[in-house]
Amino acid sequence: MLSYLIPFLIAVLSVCWIHPRLVSIALDKNIVDKPDARKLQLTPVPVLGGIAVFFGTVVGLGCASIYFNCGELFVVIVAMLVMLYTGTLDDIINLSPAFRFMVEIATVLLLIFVGGYSLNNFHGLWGVYSVPAIVAVPLTIFAAVGIINAINLIDGVDGLSSGYCVMANILFGVMFALAGDKAMLTLAIVSAGSLIPFFFHNVFGQKSKMFIGDGGTLVMGVIISVFVLRILHEESMCSIYADGNVGLVPFTLAVLAVPVFDTLRVMTTRIVKHVSPFHPDKTHLHHMFIKLGFSHVATTIAVLSLNFLVVVCWWIAYRCGCSIDAQLYIVLILGVLITFGLYNFVEWNIKHNTRFINRIRVIARRTHLTRTGVFLWMQKMMDRM
User: Fold this and answer.
1) What is the pLDDT of residues 61-120, one digit of tens each?
2) What is d(CA 340, CA 342) in angstroms, rounded to the nearest whole number?
3) What gap in Å lies between CA 379 and CA 384, rounded to an integer?
4) What integer pLDDT is reported at residue 85 of this predicted model?
C-alpha cells in the first residue's frame, strides 16, 4: 500500500506547494481568462492550473519509480508534455483549431507507434476480438482525439473538469487494481492526487482560484485516452474480465458518458444549424444547469451524478447477467437520455415556461451557498495555502 500511498501524497503536496506560486505568476504576467459573453466568471482568473496538475503527476510518478519500474510510462509523460505546451499556448495566444488537431493527431500517433497503445480488440463485443492494424490505427486516432476534446469541452464551471477527472481516474484505477496493472494504477492514483488540491482551490478559493485551462484538460484528456486504449488493447491485463462477461467497451463508454455524448450533441446541433462544430457557445449540459439558476457547485454535483448513474447502471446490467452487447446498448441509451433527452426536455419546458421548470428554478436558487460558515472556512484555508 505504501508504494501507492506515498506517490499519491507526494502528488498532493507538490500541487499544494506550486499552486500559489503559479497564481502569483499568472497574475503578474496577466495570464488570465478574461470574462466575455460566453464565460461564466465576472473577473479575470489565472489559467495555469494545468501546469500544477502536470507537475504533481510527474513528481508523483518519479516517487513511484522508487518502488517499481515506471519506464513504460515515459512515452505517456512525453505525450502529456506536448499537450501541456499546446494547451498552455492556446490559453495565452489562442491557437487555431486546425493546428490543435494536428498536434493531437501527432501525439496519438506517438502513443500508437512508440508506446504501443492501440484500440485493437473489442473483447467480445458483437463477437469481435482482434482488430487488424489497418482498422485499429484510424480507429485509435478517432477515439483518442475525440476523448481529448470531449474532456477539454467539459471544462465550463468551477470544479467540473477536475471533479470529473478525479472520478474517472478512480473508476479506471479500480479496474486496473483488479486486473493487477501496476503502471496504469499508479498513473491513475497520482493523477487523482494532483487534481484533488486543485479542485478545492477551484471550488472554494477566492484569491487562490485558478482555472485548469486547456493545458490541464488536454493533459487529462491524454491520460484518460491512454486508460481507454490500455483497457481495449489486445494484450490488456483487463481482458481476463472480458471472459467473465464484463463488457470492457461498455465500461469505458460509461465512464466517458457525459463528456462524449454531450460533445456529440453540441457538435451535431451546431452542424444542423450550419455553424462550425468548433464554434464556441453556451449549449453544453453544464450551461443548461447554470441557465436554470443552479450554482457552480450544484451544477458540478448534478453532472457528475448523471455520469456516475450511467456507470452504476452498467454495473447492474453486468451483475444481472446481461450480455456484453446488451451492456453497450444500455450505456448508449442512458448516454443519449442524460444528454440529448435531458437538454431538449428542459429547453422545451423553458420555452413554454411550465410549472415544472418554475419549481426547478426555485430548487436551483436554494443551491447557492453564501460565503459563510463552512464555505467561508474552506475559502480562508484554501487562500492561505
Assistant:
1) 999 988 888 888 999 999 999 999 999 999 888 888 899 999 999 999 999 999 999 999
2) 6
3) 9
4) 96
Q: Read off the C-alpha cell for 144.
A: 483518442
Buried b (16+ CB within 10 A) or exposed e, 222-244: bbbbbbbbbbbbeebbbbebbee
Say how many Å lie between the first and final Cα of the chain, rounded: 28
Low-confidence ranges of the chain (pLDDT < 50): none
Among residues 284, 281, 304, 60, the alpha carbon closest in space to that of 203 is found at 304
What values do phi and psi take at 377, rounded to 5?
-65, -45
Q: Which single residue is written with the C-alpha cell 489562442?
A: 94
pLDDT in the model for residue 278: 76
The residue among 62, 66, 63 whose CA lies nearest residue 74 is 62
- Report whether 247 contacts 327 (CB < 8 A): yes
Question: How many H-runs (helices) and E-runs (strands) does the chain carry?
Answer: 17, 2
Contact indicator for 143, 119 with CB cutoff of 8 Å: yes
Return the C-alpha cell found at 86. 499546446
User: Three cell numbers at 91?
Assistant: 490559453
Using alpha carbons, list the distances in angstroms from residue 144 to 64, 104, 197, 241: 26, 9, 27, 23
pTM over 0.90: yes
Residue 194 burial (CB count, 10 A): 32
8-state DSSP, 282: S
E strand or H helix that includes residue 32: strand 32-33
Q: With contact defined as beta carbons under 8 Å apart, do 207 and 163 qualify?
A: no
Contacts for 76 with CB less than 8 Å, ≥ 6 apart: 111, 115, 187, 222, 223, 226
Per-residue model confidence (pLDDT) at position 174: 95
Q: How far is 185 from 174, CA to CA, in rounded Å?
A: 8
**Residue 375, C-beta contacts closer than 8 angstroms, at least 6 positions apart:** 204, 369
Q: How far apart are CA 267 and CA 33, in angstroms?
A: 24
Residue given cell 446498448 in the structure block: 329
How many Cβ atoms sit within 10 Å of the Cβ of residue 35? Answer: 13
